[in-house]
Amino acid sequence: MLNYYTKRNNDLLNTPFIMPKNRHKLAIVYFIQLEAIAIEMETLTFEQLPQGGFAGLIERRFVINQALFGRSNTIAFAGLGNFVYLADANFLPHGETKMHSHKEVDVISMMVSGDIIHQGSLGHGELLTSGSVQVQRAGAEGFRHNEINPNAHQNHMIQLWILPEQPGQAAAYQHYQPKQGEYINVYGGHEAQQTNFNNTISVSVSNTVVQQSINIAGEAMVYLSMGTAEINGEVIQARTLVHDKQGLTFTALAEGQAIFIYKSDQKNEALS
After folding, report:
1. CATH of the domain at 262
2. pTM for this entry
3. pLDDT digits 0-9 by tens, 212-251
4. In total, how many domains does the chain have?
5. Are 139 and 168 in contact (CB under 8 A)?
6. Cα-flanking dihedrals φ and ψ of residue 63, to 5°?
7. Which residue, among 262, 196, 205, 260, has the nearest Cα to 231 in the 3D structure?
8. Phi and psi based region of residue 114 (left: phi greater than 0; alpha: psi -120 to 50; beta: remaining)
9. Among 160, 165, 266, 272, which one has the highest count of C-beta atoms within 10 angstroms of its own C-beta?
10. How many angstroms separate the CA atoms of 20 and 107, rounded?
């Protein structure tokens, strides 16, 4: 979709336009030239994607980097920098992924609703609840894990994969529980900082409240996993991925959850 913006040209036209004369006055009007600039904002919705899945879950994949995973006819986005994969999944009642392994990838799991019991070589026994964020760095040694829905109803989880900045790092685990209305960086940043796993791609999440505003300058993506929001002037519904090369202006119109992906050196701020 296209958003159209206008800007005022700095130069007024040198030649005035003279209105038809009358006996009493002469009106002179200077035109201000307006240039229409088309800025493309891409969106991808849940309904546009085919349903897939494996073991005890169903999912739709919004980001698949074909250079990494092989070419296909998918309409999924390619990602941004080291960000190469995003899936929106529902675990079936008592469903599980079964034990499987990852190596040289950072895996970020975000609970939208419901619970997950995490088993494996990192963070064994951790319970993820609604709003929880789990970050696992596989590194060179890798990790094995199983994700289990303990409940008799479906849950809802988003998972991102990001390639590490340098191969050969040690496996590691982090867990976050953002408060409602809190905008928190859960991944990425320069190597000197010790808060998050470093990367040139950053991920921030907010369990949004109504009228919460967030701005990101420069190319960025946001996945609205729950709720409704106005993004760059467009009303966006839940389970929609938005990509804009110029930046994002986000305002929550309902309580929900939003996941922001951007370059670590870009300016981003929560305004309210």
Report:
1. 2.60.120.10
2. 0.84
3. 999 999 999 999 999 999 999 999 999 999 999 999 999 9
4. 1
5. yes
6. -130, 125
7. 260
8. left
9. 160
10. 70
